[in-house]
Amino acid sequence: MAKSFDIELAQLRPKVLALTRRFFLSAHLESDPEDIVQDVLLKLWTAKQNGTDILNAEAWAVRAAKNACISAWRKKSRATHSGLEAQTSSVSDNPALNRIRETEASAILNRTMEGFSEGTIKLLRLRASGLSLDEISAITGRSKGSVKSSISAARKALVQSLNT
Fold first, then answer.
1. Residue 99, CB half-sphere, CA atoms under 13 Å: how many?
2. Residues 84, 70: one domain?
3. Among residues 123, 108, 122, 120, which one has the least CA distance to residue 158?
4. Strand residues in 27-163 grouped as ranges (E)
5. Engineered SS bond to 161: which of 60, 112, 127, 152, CB 3.0-4.6 Å?
6. In terms of domains, do 83 and 18 share one?
7. What is the total count of domains within the chain?
């Protein structure tokens, strides 16, 4: 291993560590960002030792660090999600409660859709039937961008009404 690459790794360490620390702070992750830095630099060193042609070690290390941070965040999200599922599984297994939830959601959606224009409702129905944006555009005579934009805005309104 060339001495200059060892020096390059040592110079990369503070930059990669700063990146992972910022990510961990913004994502509220409790684990140590130093672990990711060590893993990334070890992977870079191993790749270089195995003969991988790395043109820009800094770009490689930054990309690997970002990917590792995202993986750590996803693991935390999955753990949180599975913990919530375990807490609510007894409630979600109740068929009567599930019917109540479906009825409430249906009522909320109906109230929200009352505020939509006939054209928007038609677009949603066409999309729900499985048609592509191009097919809907051909049927309605509207541009694909207009169809996509209208459906997206309607979906956002529906999601927002369900979340409130």
1. 3
2. yes
3. 108
4. none
5. 112
6. yes
7. 2
Same domain membership, residue 77 and residue 10: yes
Q: pLDDT digit string (tens) for 82-107?
A: 555 555 555 556 787 888 888 888 88
**Are both 77 and 111 inside the same structural domain?**
no
Q: Where does residue 8 rank: exposed (0-12), middle (13-18), buried (19+ CB within 10 A)? A: middle
- Judge if 142 and 66 occupy the same domain: no
- Residue 112 contacts by C-beta under 8 Å, 6 or more apart in sequence? 157, 158, 161
CA 38 to chain centre: 25
pTM, 2 dp: 0.47
* Domain membership of residue 9 as a residue range: 3-90
81 shares its domain with 12: yes
Tokens linked to 108:
């909320």
Per-residue pLDDT tens digits for 17-60 = 998 888 888 777 777 888 889 999 999 889 888 888 888 989 99
Determine the pLDDT at residue 1: 47
